[in-house]
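Before the break, one more example. Copy the sequence into your notebook; we will annotate it together after we see the structure.
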Amino acid sequence: MPQTPDQLKMTPFYGFFHYVAASLHAMWFRGEVYGTENFPLDGPFLIASNHASHLDPPFVGAHVPRQMRFFARKSLWSNRLMCWWMNRTETIPVERDSGDIGAIKRVLQALKENRAIVLFPEGTRSPDGLLQKAKPGVGLMACKTGVPVVPCRIFGSFQAFGKGSALPRFGSPVTIVFGQPIPPAEYDDPKAGKARYELAAQRIMDRIAALPEPPHRVV
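Here is what the structure looks like once it is written out:
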Protein backbone atom coordinates (compact mmCIF):
# COMPACT_ATOMS: atom_id res chain seq x y z
CA MET A 1 0.00 0.00 0.00
CA PRO A 2 1.47 3.41 -0.95
CA GLN A 3 2.18 5.77 1.89
CA THR A 4 0.36 9.09 2.26
CA PRO A 5 2.36 12.36 2.44
CA ASP A 6 1.66 12.53 6.19
CA GLN A 7 3.02 9.01 6.70
CA LEU A 8 6.18 9.92 4.81
CA LYS A 9 6.72 12.72 7.36
CA MET A 10 6.85 10.24 10.26
CA THR A 11 10.22 9.71 11.89
CA PRO A 12 11.65 6.28 11.01
CA PHE A 13 11.36 5.20 14.67
CA TYR A 14 7.69 6.18 14.91
CA GLY A 15 6.94 4.84 11.43
CA PHE A 16 8.34 1.43 12.36
CA PHE A 17 6.12 1.09 15.43
CA HIS A 18 3.16 2.52 13.49
CA TYR A 19 3.60 -0.37 11.05
CA VAL A 20 4.07 -2.91 13.85
CA ALA A 21 0.89 -1.78 15.65
CA ALA A 22 -1.16 -1.88 12.44
CA SER A 23 0.16 -5.36 11.64
CA LEU A 24 -0.52 -6.61 15.18
CA HIS A 25 -4.10 -5.37 14.97
CA ALA A 26 -4.65 -6.89 11.53
CA MET A 27 -3.10 -10.26 12.36
CA TRP A 28 -4.12 -10.98 15.95
CA PHE A 29 -7.01 -8.67 16.93
CA ARG A 30 -8.63 -8.08 13.58
CA GLY A 31 -11.82 -6.06 13.90
CA GLU A 32 -13.44 -3.41 11.76
CA VAL A 33 -12.14 0.16 11.47
CA TYR A 34 -14.68 2.84 10.53
CA GLY A 35 -14.63 6.59 10.07
CA THR A 36 -11.02 7.25 9.05
CA GLU A 37 -12.46 9.68 6.48
CA ASN A 38 -13.46 11.88 9.43
CA PHE A 39 -9.90 13.04 10.14
CA PRO A 40 -9.49 16.73 9.22
CA LEU A 41 -7.44 17.06 6.04
CA ASP A 42 -5.59 20.13 7.27
CA GLY A 43 -4.44 21.51 10.57
CA PRO A 44 -4.13 20.09 14.07
CA PHE A 45 -6.83 18.17 15.89
CA LEU A 46 -7.44 16.03 18.96
CA ILE A 47 -8.70 12.46 19.08
CA ALA A 48 -10.66 11.62 22.23
CA SER A 49 -11.20 7.93 22.88
CA ASN A 50 -12.52 5.60 25.54
CA HIS A 51 -9.85 3.54 27.29
CA ALA A 52 -10.12 -0.07 28.44
CA SER A 53 -6.79 -1.66 27.52
CA HIS A 54 -3.07 -1.14 26.95
CA LEU A 55 -3.91 -1.97 23.31
CA ASP A 56 -5.91 1.24 22.84
CA PRO A 57 -3.13 3.82 22.24
CA PRO A 58 -1.16 1.83 19.65
CA PHE A 59 -4.27 0.58 17.84
CA VAL A 60 -5.81 4.06 17.60
CA GLY A 61 -2.52 5.55 16.44
CA ALA A 62 -2.01 2.78 13.89
CA HIS A 63 -5.04 3.94 11.91
CA VAL A 64 -4.16 7.63 11.82
CA PRO A 65 -1.91 8.36 8.81
CA ARG A 66 0.26 10.93 10.57
CA GLN A 67 2.60 11.01 13.53
CA MET A 68 0.55 11.38 16.70
CA ARG A 69 1.42 12.54 20.19
CA PHE A 70 0.17 10.53 23.17
CA PHE A 71 -0.10 11.07 26.91
CA ALA A 72 1.30 8.80 29.62
CA ARG A 73 1.45 9.18 33.39
CA LYS A 74 4.70 10.78 34.48
CA SER A 75 5.59 7.92 36.84
CA LEU A 76 6.33 5.67 33.83
CA TRP A 77 9.45 7.73 33.12
CA SER A 78 11.09 6.16 36.19
CA ASN A 79 11.70 3.04 34.08
CA ARG A 80 14.79 3.69 31.93
CA LEU A 81 13.65 1.55 28.99
CA MET A 82 10.14 3.03 29.00
CA CYS A 83 11.61 6.52 29.37
CA TRP A 84 13.84 6.01 26.32
CA TRP A 85 11.00 4.58 24.20
CA MET A 86 8.43 7.23 25.15
CA ASN A 87 10.89 10.04 24.53
CA ARG A 88 11.66 8.63 21.08
CA THR A 89 7.92 8.49 20.28
CA GLU A 90 7.46 12.04 21.69
CA THR A 91 4.98 10.90 24.32
CA ILE A 92 3.86 13.69 26.66
CA PRO A 93 4.26 13.02 30.41
CA VAL A 94 1.37 14.23 32.55
CA GLU A 95 0.50 14.35 36.22
CA ARG A 96 -3.03 13.04 36.57
CA ASP A 97 -5.74 15.32 37.97
CA SER A 98 -3.25 18.12 38.62
CA GLY A 99 -3.90 20.60 35.81
CA ASP A 100 -0.36 19.90 34.57
CA ILE A 101 0.77 23.21 33.03
CA GLY A 102 3.85 21.61 31.46
CA ALA A 103 1.71 19.08 29.61
CA ILE A 104 -0.63 21.80 28.38
CA LYS A 105 2.35 23.77 27.02
CA ARG A 106 3.62 20.68 25.18
CA VAL A 107 0.17 20.13 23.68
CA LEU A 108 -0.05 23.73 22.49
CA GLN A 109 3.43 23.48 20.95
CA ALA A 110 2.56 20.23 19.19
CA LEU A 111 -0.60 21.76 17.74
CA LYS A 112 1.38 24.75 16.51
CA GLU A 113 3.49 22.20 14.63
CA ASN A 114 0.31 20.95 12.93
CA ARG A 115 0.30 17.71 14.90
CA ALA A 116 -2.59 15.61 16.16
CA ILE A 117 -2.91 14.33 19.73
CA VAL A 118 -4.74 11.38 21.29
CA LEU A 119 -6.51 11.94 24.61
CA PHE A 120 -8.36 9.50 26.86
CA PRO A 121 -11.06 11.48 28.72
CA GLU A 122 -11.56 8.78 31.36
CA GLY A 123 -7.98 9.33 32.51
CA THR A 124 -7.14 5.66 33.00
CA ARG A 125 -8.27 2.24 31.82
CA SER A 126 -11.82 1.22 32.63
CA PRO A 127 -11.91 -1.49 35.33
CA ASP A 128 -14.83 -3.31 33.68
CA GLY A 129 -14.84 -2.23 30.03
CA LEU A 130 -17.77 0.15 30.53
CA LEU A 131 -17.48 3.86 29.80
CA GLN A 132 -16.42 5.92 32.80
CA LYS A 133 -17.04 9.57 33.68
CA ALA A 134 -14.78 11.98 31.84
CA LYS A 135 -12.13 13.88 33.78
CA PRO A 136 -12.23 17.69 33.48
CA GLY A 137 -8.64 17.65 32.22
CA VAL A 138 -9.67 16.68 28.69
CA GLY A 139 -12.12 19.58 28.67
CA LEU A 140 -9.32 21.89 29.76
CA MET A 141 -7.04 20.64 26.98
CA ALA A 142 -9.77 20.97 24.35
CA CYS A 143 -10.87 24.45 25.43
CA LYS A 144 -7.31 25.75 25.69
CA THR A 145 -6.41 24.50 22.22
CA GLY A 146 -9.67 25.34 20.43
CA VAL A 147 -9.22 22.67 17.75
CA PRO A 148 -11.67 20.06 16.40
CA VAL A 149 -12.04 16.90 18.50
CA VAL A 150 -12.54 13.59 16.69
CA PRO A 151 -14.46 11.21 18.99
CA CYS A 152 -13.30 7.60 18.89
CA ARG A 153 -14.83 4.49 20.42
CA ILE A 154 -13.00 1.21 20.77
CA PHE A 155 -14.99 -2.00 21.09
CA GLY A 156 -13.55 -5.29 22.32
CA SER A 157 -10.22 -4.15 23.73
CA PHE A 158 -11.28 -4.94 27.31
CA GLN A 159 -12.11 -8.50 26.29
CA ALA A 160 -8.84 -8.73 24.36
CA PHE A 161 -6.54 -7.40 27.09
CA GLY A 162 -8.41 -5.56 29.83
CA LYS A 163 -7.41 -4.61 33.34
CA GLY A 164 -6.60 -7.71 35.38
CA SER A 165 -5.67 -9.81 32.33
CA ALA A 166 -2.29 -11.48 32.61
CA LEU A 167 -2.02 -12.13 28.88
CA PRO A 168 -3.80 -10.83 25.77
CA ARG A 169 -6.47 -13.00 24.14
CA PHE A 170 -5.15 -13.30 20.61
CA GLY A 171 -7.97 -13.62 18.10
CA SER A 172 -10.37 -11.48 20.13
CA PRO A 173 -11.48 -8.72 17.70
CA VAL A 174 -10.92 -5.05 18.47
CA THR A 175 -13.11 -2.67 16.44
CA ILE A 176 -12.41 1.07 16.20
CA VAL A 177 -14.93 3.74 15.18
CA PHE A 178 -13.97 7.37 14.51
CA GLY A 179 -16.82 9.88 14.54
CA GLN A 180 -17.26 13.23 12.85
CA PRO A 181 -15.11 16.05 14.29
CA ILE A 182 -16.68 18.15 17.04
CA PRO A 183 -16.02 21.86 16.40
CA PRO A 184 -15.06 23.98 19.42
CA ALA A 185 -18.42 25.78 19.38
CA GLU A 186 -20.14 22.46 20.15
CA TYR A 187 -18.03 21.42 23.14
CA ASP A 188 -16.87 24.73 24.63
CA ASP A 189 -19.14 27.15 26.49
CA PRO A 190 -17.00 30.03 27.85
CA LYS A 191 -20.05 31.31 29.75
CA ALA A 192 -20.22 28.14 31.86
CA GLY A 193 -17.81 29.61 34.41
CA LYS A 194 -16.20 27.10 36.76
CA ALA A 195 -18.10 24.27 35.08
CA ARG A 196 -16.63 25.08 31.66
CA TYR A 197 -14.02 22.33 31.46
CA GLU A 198 -16.17 19.67 33.13
CA LEU A 199 -19.01 20.49 30.73
CA ALA A 200 -16.69 20.31 27.71
CA ALA A 201 -15.31 16.95 28.88
CA GLN A 202 -18.81 15.56 29.33
CA ARG A 203 -19.94 16.78 25.90
CA ILE A 204 -16.94 15.07 24.31
CA MET A 205 -17.59 11.88 26.29
CA ASP A 206 -21.25 11.94 25.24
CA ARG A 207 -20.18 12.00 21.59
CA ILE A 208 -17.91 9.02 22.21
CA ALA A 209 -20.77 7.14 23.89
CA ALA A 210 -23.06 7.91 20.95
CA LEU A 211 -20.84 6.05 18.48
CA PRO A 212 -22.55 2.71 17.79
CA GLU A 213 -20.76 -0.60 17.43
CA PRO A 214 -20.95 -1.55 13.75
CA PRO A 215 -22.43 -4.91 12.80
CA HIS A 216 -19.85 -7.61 12.28
CA ARG A 217 -19.35 -8.46 8.66
CA VAL A 218 -20.17 -11.98 7.58
CA VAL A 219 -17.30 -13.38 5.54
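The chain has a mean pLDDT of 91. Residues 150 and 181 are 4 Å apart (CA to CA). Try to locate both features in your own notes.
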